[in-house]
Design brief:
Elements lengths: L5 H24 L5 H9 L5 E7 L4 H12 L12 E6 L2 E2 L5 E2 L4 H10 L21 H7 L3 E9 L3 H7 L29 H7 L4 E5 L1 H4 L13 H7 L3 E3 L2 H6 L6 E4 L15 E2 L21 H15 L7 E7 L1 H7 L3 H24 L3 E7 L6 E3 L8 E6 L5 E6 L15 E6 L9 E3 L2 H10 L3
Parallel strand pairs: 1-10, 1-11, 2-16, 5-6, 5-10, 6-8, 7-8
Antiparallel strand pairs: 2-15, 3-4, 9-13, 11-15, 12-14, 13-14
Helix pairs in contact: 1-2, 3-13, 4-6, 4-14, 11-13, 12-13
Length: 452
C-alpha cells in the first residue's frame, strides 16, 4: 500500500486549512467571493482575465496608516477583503547575482514582469548581460490577450515601464532622456525610449501621466521629427487628456490617456512631517493643484476594464491589466502623510472596482500587492523621533503619530527591504499563500492565463 509522504500530507492539510480560512474570512468580511469561488481559487483553474494592482511603496505600515485614518483601527479597507493573503520578498540583485536587499521600483517591477531578478534601475533586462527579457504583457499579447496599464505616475515611470519596454536605465523615459541608455537608442539599433516602446507595443490601454515625455520629438527612425504623441496617433491611438475625453473613447482602437505633464497630482494635501513633529492635523481631502477634469485612479480602472472587455467580447482569451497607485511611494519619499494616505485611499477604491468586476466574472484573477516597503511608521504619541514626524487626527477623532526616519531630514526618505503583502482571489490565487518571492508572481499570472 502506498503511503503519502509527510510533505504531501502537510501540503494537503495546509490546503484544506487554507480553504476553510478563505471561506471564513469571506463570510466574516462580507466580501464578494462566494464559498464556491474561494474553493475554486484553492483548486486552481484557468483565468480568462488578470487584474494586477500595485500600490507602489505600499508596505504593511502604509496600509495600516491608511486604515487607521480612513476606516478606523477596527475597520477594513477594500484590499483587506481578499480571501487569500500571503507575503513576498522584494530584494533585487547585483550584476553578479548576489542579493541587493533594498530594491527600487525598476528592479522589483522587472521581477514580476519577467520572473527574473535584476539590478536596481534596470527595466526588464538581465542584471549581467543587459539583454531584454520577455515580459508578462508581451507574452499575453502573443497569446491573443488584450492588455492595459493604468498608473498615477508618468506612463514611462518604472512600474508601468517594466511591462512594455526594455531599458538599461529607468531614466530613459523619452527620446530626449537617453543619456544612460546609449545602446537602446534607435540610432544604435535599439528599441528607443520607454515612451516610444510603449506605443510601439500597441498596448490597448495606456492611462496615466507623463505628457512631457510623449511631447518629446523622436530623433531617428520612421517617426523622426514627430513627437511620440504624434507617433501614437500614426499607430492608431486615440489620445485623450482629461476625464471627458476618457469617457468618450470607443473600444476597438488603442487609447493613450495623458492626464498630467508629469505625475498625476495627489488627491489629498496636508502639512508634511517636520523635525519635532507637527501640530495635530486633519488632512485636506482635495488638492488645489489637481485639475477638476483629472480622472481618479478608480475612473481610469473602470474605463480600462470596460475597453479591454469590449475588445475581447467575442474572443476566447480575455485581458491582462496592471493598475498602479504610484504616489503612495512618492509621498512617502516626501514624508507627506496626508498625500500618502489620500493616494492609498484612492488606490483602495480602484481595488474595489477590480473586485466588483471579479464578483461578476469569477474567471478573473485579481492580485493586489506592493513593489517594496517604505519609510512611514506609526509610533507612540509620546515618542520623539530623531527625524521627521507628524501627528494626525483620524476619522475616529483620535491622534496618531507617524514617523519618517530612513534618511536625514531634508533628504528623500528611503525604501525598506521588508517583505510586503500579496493578496488574491480567483483562479490560481492559492499561489500567493505563505512567503513567496516577488518573481513567483510572474509564474502565478502566466499559469493563470495559460501563457506559452
Amino acid at each position: 500500500m502506498h503511503r503519502p509522504s509527510r510533505r504531501h500530507v502537510v501540503t494537503a492539510t495546509a490546503l484544506v486549512a487554507a480553504t476553510a480560512a478563505a471561506v471564513a474570512v469571506t463570510t466574516a468580511a462580507g466580501a464578494s467571493d462566494t464559498k464556491q469561488q474561494a474553493q475554486h481559487a484553492i483548486k486552481g483553474g484557468k483565468a480568462k482575465n488578470v487584474i494586477l494592482l500595485i500600490g507602489d511603496g505600499m508596505g504593511d505600515s502604509e496600509i495600516t496608516l491608511a486604515r487607521d485614518y480612513v476606516a478606523g483601527a477596527n475597520g477594513r479597507l477594500n484590499m483587506d477583503g481578499f480571501p487569500l493573503t500571503g507575503a513576498y520578498t522584494t530584494y533585487a540583485v547585483h550584476a553578479d547575482g548576489t542579493p541587493d536587499y533594498v530594491t527600487d521600483s525598476a528592479a522589483s517591477g522587472s521581477g514580476w514582469a519577467t520572473g527574473r531578478k535584476t539590478v536596481n534601475g534596470r527595466i526588464s533586462k538581465t542584471p549581467d548581460t543587459d539583454k531584454a527579457i520577455p515580459t508578462i504583457l508581451e507574452l499575453a499579447q502573443k497569446n491573443g490577450y488584450a492588455t492595459g496599464s493604468v498608473t498615477t505616475a508618468e506612463l514611462t515611470d518604472a512600474t508601468p515601464a517594466v511591462l512594455a519596454s526594455h531599458a538599461t536605465d529607468r531614466s530613459c523615459q523619452g527620446p530626449g532622456d537617453m543619456a544612460k541608455c546609449p545602446t537602446d537608442t534607435l540610432a544604435k539599433g535599439g528599441p528607443g525610449s520607454i515612451a516610444e516602446q510603449s506605443v510601439n507595443h500597441k498596448v490597448d490601454v495606456l492611462l496615466g501621466g507623463g505628457k512631457q515625455r510623449f511631447d518629446q520629438k523622436v530623433t531617428d527612425g520612421t517617426y523622426k521629427g514627430l513627437t511620440v504623441t504624434e507617433q501614437a496617433r500614426k499607430l492608431g491611438y486615440q489620445v485623450v487628456t482629461d476625464n471627458a475625453g476618457l469617457k468618450d473613447v470607443k473600444a476597438g482602437k488603442p487609447v493613450l490617456g495623458l492626464f498630467a505633464p508629469g505625475n498625476v497630482p495627489t488627491e489629498w494635501t496636508g502639512k508634511p512631517a517636520a523635525r519635532g513633529g507637527t501640530d495635530p492635523q486633519r488632512c485636506v481631502t482635495s488638492n488645489a493643484n489637481r485639475p477638476a477634469a483629472t480622472p481618479t485612479l478608480a475612473d481610469s480602472a473602470t474605463k480600462a476594464i470596460e475597453l479591454l472587455e469590449a475588445k475581447q467580447k467575442h474572443a476566447k482569451q480575455g485581458f491582462f491589466l496592471q493598475i498602479e497607485g504610484a504616489s503612495i511611494d512618492k509621498q512617502d519619499h516626501a514624508a507627506d502623510p496626508c498625500g500618502q494616505i489620500g493616494e492609498t485611499a484612492a488606490f483602495d477604491r480602484a481595488v474595489k472596482v477590480a473586485r466588483d468586476y471579479a464578483a461578476k466574472h469569477p474567471d478573473t484573477l485579481v492580485v493586489t500587492t506592493a513593489d517594496h516597503g517604505h519609510t512611514s511608521q506609526i509610533v507612540p504619541l509620546e515618542a520623539t523621533p530623531p527625524g521627521l514626524s507628524s501627528t494626525l487626527v483620524t476619522n475616529e477623532g483620535q491622534q496618531l503619530k507617524v514617523n519618517y526616519s530612513t534618511n536625514t531630514p531634508g533628504q528623500s526618505q528611503e525604501h525598506t527591504g521588508t517583505q510586503v503583502r500579496i493578496a488574491a482571489q480567483g483562479p490560481q490565487a492559492y499561489r500567493v499563500l505563505g512567503v513567496t518571492n516577488q518573481t513567483d508572481l510572474f509564474t502565478t499570472i502566466r499559469s493563470a492565463l495559460g501563457l506559452k
